[in-house]
Amino acid sequence: MTSTVPALGTRTAEGSALQAVLLDMDGTLVDTEGFWWDVETEVFASLGHTLDDSWRHVVVGGPMTRSAGFLIEATGADITLAELSVLLNDGFEERIGRDLPLMPGAARLLAELSAHDVPTALVSASHRRIIDRVLKSLGPEHFALTVAGDEVPRTKPHPDPYLAAAAGLGADPARCAVVEDTATGVAAAEAAGCHVVAVPSVAPITPAARRTVVTSLEEVDLTFLRGLMTQMR
């Protein structure tokens, strides 16, 4: 976990109960959920197995231990979890080295949060090596804190990553807005007690208490995020 926490005076914008914004990475800020599936498909093809497209909804958004473990069990591939994790991370890193498209609205939202000194964290189930590579495109200056999936005892769907991010920013989870694209990430954020904005990428997500669903980050700005604190108490 890396952190450059801003001064306490920047924690909340004037007149706002919003203390911090916690952002997922894959499928939320960068258009990479499809990359993971492509890499998984290629790796298992090299092992002599074909992945069923219906499995994509099972593995999306979760920790690598869960998704890779599921695919090993489902295919019966003769490979260990540790060996597969290396192959998947290597393949994904090579893939994003060729192209790393940002989701529509991502650059604008990050710039707005930075301009208003809103403490912002990147919270991902991806490993540190992947996060550090993606940060080069997102701009590390936009984040006071980053939390990787291999740096917490339990990653998403457990609340640990979001609790760690809120604590690292000195924020109350109940006054944090989380932006996520998968049900796994939403579950983690809600278990941590955060307000959630869901921008579904692969599978649908339904609205619920303390959960707002939008179709694109283009609909999300600082005014919108501040409004969550008053609308969803």
Main beta-sheet annotation: 7 strands, mixed
Q: Within the largest sheet, what's the order of strands?
A: 1-4-3-2-5-6-7
| Beta-strand content | 5-15%
What class do helices, strands and sheet pairing give? Answer: alpha/beta
What does the average pLDDT come to? 90
**Oligomeric status:** single chain
Instruction: Write down the Rg.
Output: 17 Å
- Classify the helix fraction into a percent range: 40-55%
Order of helices and strands: EEHHHHHEHEHEHEEH
**Shape field:** globular
The number of helices is: 9
In total, the number of strands is 7
Low-confidence stretches: 6-15
N-C termini distance: 30 Å
Layout: helices, strands, pairs:
Layout: E1 2-3, E2 20-23, H1 33-46, H2 56-59, H3 64-75, H4 81-98, H5 106-115, E3 120-123, H6 128-138, E4 145-147, H7 160-169, E5 176-180, H8 183-191, E6 195-198, E7 211-213, H9 222-231
Parallel strand pairs: 2-3, 2-5, 3-4, 5-6, 6-7
Antiparallel strand pairs: 1-4
Short description:
Helix content is 42%, strand content 11%.
What does this structure look like?
The model is unreliable at 6-15 (pLDDT under 50). α8 links the parallel β5 and β6. The chain is an alpha/beta fold and 233 residues long. The protein has nine helices and seven strands; from the N terminus they run ββαααααβαβαβαββα. α1 (33-46) packs across α4 (81-98) and α4 (81-98) packs parallel to α6. Helices cover 42% and strands 11% of the residues. It is globular. The chain has helices at 33-46, 56-59, 64-75, 81-98, 106-115, 128-138, 160-169, 183-191, 222-231, and strands spanning 2-3, 20-23, 120-123, 145-147, 176-180, 195-198, 211-213.
